[in-house]
Specification:
- By secondary structure, the chain is α+β, with helices and mostly antiparallel strands.
- A three-stranded antiparallel beta sheet has the order 2-1-3.
- Helix 1 packs antiparallel against helix 2.
- It has a single domain, classed as 3-Layer(bab) Sandwich (minor pseudopilin epsh fold), CATH 3.55.40.20.
- It is built from seven helices and three strands; from the N terminus they run H-H-H-H-E-E-E-H-H-H.
């Protein structure tokens, strides 16, 4: 059963260089993201089989693993679309720009806080800009692994994967350099559509 599938990238594997090399992007998309898709589909298949056969399952373990795999798939799917070749992603403008300037004081201050959040993520995780639907405020969060610390009332606008698999071939252990170069390939036009 294939419910989830690996999305096509809206650009070629070499189009984000030098910020993200062709080799790094190919590995990240075709191996790492694909593994989350495969894992989520395998769990659904296991659940379907167990239900048909009225077999016992470890609901806690399967729910946690499914949450991890599905969140990995969804965050990666969003991550690919908030990237664009250098110079082709536009600039923060309109409602998005106004919202960020109101909350953070300036775009530069927002980028600084977001970068600090990304570089300080312990172990494996994500930095995200989200819109809190309750307060109508943009907030910056870390998402540990894929699915810990995610708050359901938030609409994710911008996501940055800071698992080592996202940058190690290009940057080794220099996560800060990867985060710095990330800003050159942000697709602001796509981020603005999510506001």
């Amino acid at each position: 059963m294939e419910i989830y599938s690996l999305p096509e990238l809206p650009y070629g594997y070499g189009d984000l260089a030098p910020a993200i090399s062709e080799e790094q992007l190919t590995l990240h998309h075709s191996k790492h993201h694909a593994a989350y898709v495969k894992g989520a589909n395998a769990i659904l298949e296991k659940l379907e089989t167990a239900r048909k056969e009225n077999a016992e399952i470890d609901a806690k373990a399967l729910a946690k693993e499914f949450s991890f795999m599905l969140s990995g798939h969804l965050l990666h799917s969003l991550f690919w679309t908030n990237l664009a070749p250098a110079g082709k992603g536009g600039e923060a403008a309109g409602e998005l720009k106004e919202m960020l300037e109101k909350e953070f004081g300036s775009l530069e201050r927002f980028q600084k806080e977001f970068s600090q959040t990304a570089t300080s993520c312990e172990g494996s995780g994500w930095a995200v800009l989200a819109l809190d639907k309750i307060s109508s405020k943009p907030i910056i969060l870390q998402i540990e692994k894929h699915n810990v610390n995610l708050i359901p009332s938030l609409q994710i606008l911008l996501a940055l994967d800071v698992w080592e698999h996202a940058y190690y071939l290009d940057y080794k252990n220099d996560r800060a350099k990867f985060v710095e170069n990330f800003w050159s390939v942000v697709n602001w036009n796509e981020v603005a559509k999510r506001v």
